[in-house]
Amino acid sequence: DIQMTQSPSSVSASVGDRVTITCRASQGISSWLAWYQQKPGKAPKLLIYAASSLQSGVPSRFSGSGSGTDFTLTISSLQPEDFATYYCQQANSFPRTFGGGTKVEIK
Amino acid sequence: EVQLVESGGGLVQPGGSLRLSCAASGFTFSSYEMNWVRQAPGKGLEWVSYISSSGSTIYYADSVKGRFTISRDNAKNSLYLQMNSLRAEDTAVYYCARDRMVRGVFEPGADYWGQGTLVTVSS
To answer: Does A76 lie at the interface with B, CB-CB under 8 angstroms?
Structure first.
C-alpha cells in the first residue's frame, strides 16, 4: 500500500499569511493526487485534483504542485474561512490512502 | 444539482450488521465511479471501498475486506454498503463520494460527497 505523509500536522497562522502544506507518497504516484478541505461537522470538499488543477468554484488563492512523490498545497493569502483541516489523497492505486491531515489554526 | 444522501446509520452491537444506502440525484449515476469513505470520531479520513460505474470492479480497504460489501443499483440511482461482523473500530461517519470524471475519464479526486451517516458499534 502507498503511505501518504503530510506535514505539518498542524499550523498556526494569521489572516493574510501564506501557508504551505506538504504531502509525501511512499512511492511515485505521478500526478494522481487530490487535496481536500474539511471543516468541523462537514463533509470534505475537493480543492485540487490531479495534483495541480483547481476544482471549479475554489478560490484562486489555493494552488497545488508536485508530481512523483512530493506534493504541496499552498494558500497564498489565508482568509478567515480557510481555517480547517486539509487532507491529501493518492488515487494512483487501491487502497486510495489519505494523508493524516493538517489542521490550520488561527494564530 | 448533484446530491448524495446517505442513510442507514445507527447504533449496532459488536458482531451485528448494518446496510448503508446513498441516494444519488442530479447526475447520470450510472456513468460515475463511487466510493465509501469513513471518519472515526476525532480522526482522519479513511477510504473504505470503490465500485466502478457498471459495478464490475470493486476494491476494499484491508480493514473491511471480507466483512463489508459494496454494491450499486443504477436503475435506482443508489449505492450501498453492507457491513457485517461489525467491530468497535468501525464506529465512524460514513460518506459516499463521487469520483471526478470528465467525458468518462477519471481525474483523481472525489468531487461530490454526501453529508455522512454515523455508525456506532457498541454494546
So the answer is: no
**Considering CB atoms only, which of A43, A87, A89 is closest to B95?**
A43
Q: Which of B30, B70, B38, B66 is nearest to B51 (CA)?
A: B70
Cell 460518506 sits at which residue? Answer: B95
Closest among A33, A93, A95, A71 to B38, alpha carbons compared = A95
**pLDDT tens string for chain A (107 positions)?**
999 999 999 999 999 999 999 999 999 999 999 999 999 999 999 999 999 999 999 999 999 999 999 999 999 999 999 999 999 999 999 999 999 999 999 88
On chain B, the residues whose CB falls within 8 A of the CB of A49 are 100, 107-109, 111
Residue A62: domain span = 4-100
- Residue A61 falls within a domain, yes or no? yes
Cα–Cα distance for residue pair B32/B98, rounded to 1 Å: 7
The answer to the question of residue A64 being in a domain is yes
Inside any domain, residue A12: yes
**Chain A residues closer than 8 Å to B37 by CB:** 44
Q: Pull the grid cell for residue A47.
A: 480543492
The alpha carbon of B26 is separated from its chain's Cα centroid by a whole number of angstroms, namely 18
How many independent structural domains does chain A possess?
1
